[in-house]
Write a sequence for this structure.
């Protein structure tokens, strides 16, 4: 008996250590109960202790997350935050299966934070859906980012209201989301931000009178493939102030075919403008089908091409006109069919907008 007691006493500290510092622990937050608070639960967690908070009902509060390895998920019956999650410098924070709506932005990451938002409804926030700021990194996957900017409907030009805003050296992977009906740009990438966009539906975002778009880039870079732009009233994509946008996987003729990736569908909205670029910007469209006009303005370059590798060639297409305006603007076309016209000075256009037939297969 004494030996058994000694063994139990020795085992107890090991068990306690494994619970508090090893495997994540789970907590329920029933927001329908009086005085329920996600923030109070978070404040009790010590640094370095993984926790998962399962939320049911609707909590009305703003939640600041400053500790690593915290997960916030909605219960099977649904969980809602009427407020803002702000991740300040914390790493490996996750939001899953939640509805997030309120009087500010839905989720904000700043101060070198890293976080994931997956299978969430980020809808009808007064400001932006998600903000990725200040060297933060985010993965946004399988979300509905819709109808944000509700608190700014009576405001003038500018102001928040994007589905996703990536700024100030923030970076984001944005994969398989529905980004629709936002007051401002569907996705805005600015001020040294970087975004990778893959297989998103980006529709009906922005206001034409203030030149907002499905995707707006300025002083930033975006890489993309397989996205579907449709019915964004002013333009599907705008790129300005040294912005850079590329689709496809950018391989040369010695590598595997570019068209292993899905084509991008870029359809104009009511203004008829699919892509607009200017002020020393660069747009490289490979593996795209464009419906609408393309405008290349001052000191900017558009490159359009299909595939590089002969037997696998599938040309890019433009069902509309290409306009090259101002001095020092250039449109370079290769393996691209343009069904409309190409307008601009001779020095501003390279290529004729005709896709050559694919060579016969090798015997």
């Amino acid at each position: 008996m004494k030996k058994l007691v000694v063994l139990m006493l020795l085992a107890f500290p090991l068990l306690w250590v494994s619970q508090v510092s090893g495997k994540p622990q789970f907590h329920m937050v029933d927001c329908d109960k009086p005085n329920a608070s996600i923030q109070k639960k978070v404040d009790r967690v010590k640094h370095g202790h993984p926790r998962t908070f399962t939320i049911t009902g609707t909590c009305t509060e703003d939640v600041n997350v400053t500790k690593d390895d915290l997960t916030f998920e909605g219960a099977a019956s649904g969980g809602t935050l009427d407020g803002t999650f702000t991740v300040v410098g914390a790493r490996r924070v996750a939001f899953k299966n939640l509805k997030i709506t309120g009087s500010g932005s839905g989720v904000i990451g700043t101060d070198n934070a890293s976080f994931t938002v997956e299978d969430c409804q980020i809808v009808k926030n007064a400001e932006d859906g998600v903000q990725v700021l200040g060297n933060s990194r985010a993965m946004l996957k399988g979300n509905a980012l819709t109808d944000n900017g509700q608190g700014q409907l009576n405001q003038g030009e500018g102001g928040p209201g994007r589905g996703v805003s990536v700024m100030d050296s923030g970076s984001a992977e944005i994969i398989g989301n529905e980004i629709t009906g936002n007051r401002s740009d569907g996705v805005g990438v600015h001020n040294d931000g970087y975004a990778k966009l893959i297989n998103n539906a980006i529709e009906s975002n922005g206001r034409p009178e203030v030149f907002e778009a499905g995707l707006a880039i300025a002083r930033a870079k975006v890489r993309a493939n397989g996205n579907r732009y449709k019915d964004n009233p002013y333009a599907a994509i705008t790129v300005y102030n040294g912005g850079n946008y590329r689709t496809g996987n950018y391989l040369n003729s010695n590598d595997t075919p570019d068209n292993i990736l899905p084509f991008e569908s870029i359809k104009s909205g009511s203004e008829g403008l699919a892509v607009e670029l200017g002020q020393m910007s660069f747009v490289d469209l490979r593996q795209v089908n464009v419906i609408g006009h393309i405008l290349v303005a001052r000191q900017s370059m558009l490159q359009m091409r299909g595939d590089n590798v002969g037997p696998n060639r599938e040309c890019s297409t433009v069902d509309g006109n290409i306009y090259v305006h101002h001095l020092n603007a250039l449109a370079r076309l290769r393996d691209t069919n343009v069904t409309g016209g190409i307008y601009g000075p001779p020095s501003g256009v390279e290529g004729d907008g005709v896709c050559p037939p694919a060579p016969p297969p090798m015997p």
